[in-house]
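Write out this protein's structure.
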Amino acid sequence: MAAANDLRKGQAIKYNGNVAIVIDVQHRTPGNLRAFVQAIIRYIGTGKSADVRFGSTDKVELVDVNRQTLEFSYKDNTGYHFMDPETYDTITLNDNLLGEAKEYLVENLKVEVLSTEGRPVQVELPSSVQLKVVEAPEGVRGDTASNVTKPAVLETGKTVNVPLFIQEGELIKIDTRTGNYMGRA
């Protein structure tokens, strides 16, 4: 048993008899009231999310989480296929499990797959990825006020605002946590 203050994103806990993954945690101390921990959790069995509140001294039962580094191989109508680079075993994950992570998946991208009780429950991306720009309109001459951007479509289909000098075919670096342009690769 661990204190609720020790909860971190990505941990697995047992809540109301069900195993859940902690998606987000915030420690709050409102005015003269007692401190509490506000957490968003996703139940593994159902896939549903819940917003829960723990007292800062409440005890939470932690569940073991296995981390495995896998490489993204390809996507088809059955799901997203990942391969273990050491054993060459393949795992297929569905859209619901990946969430927004599927907007950053390119061939051979290494990701961390978290699993509890033998079931994959969450995919963690690297902090940034390199993606190719497949469609970017030309910047208009004279649009040189500070920080002018234009929309660009990336190889995964994601649209990101980039500076005017970025052209089609260039590799750019994208922050996977915010989805923002970071620079040329």
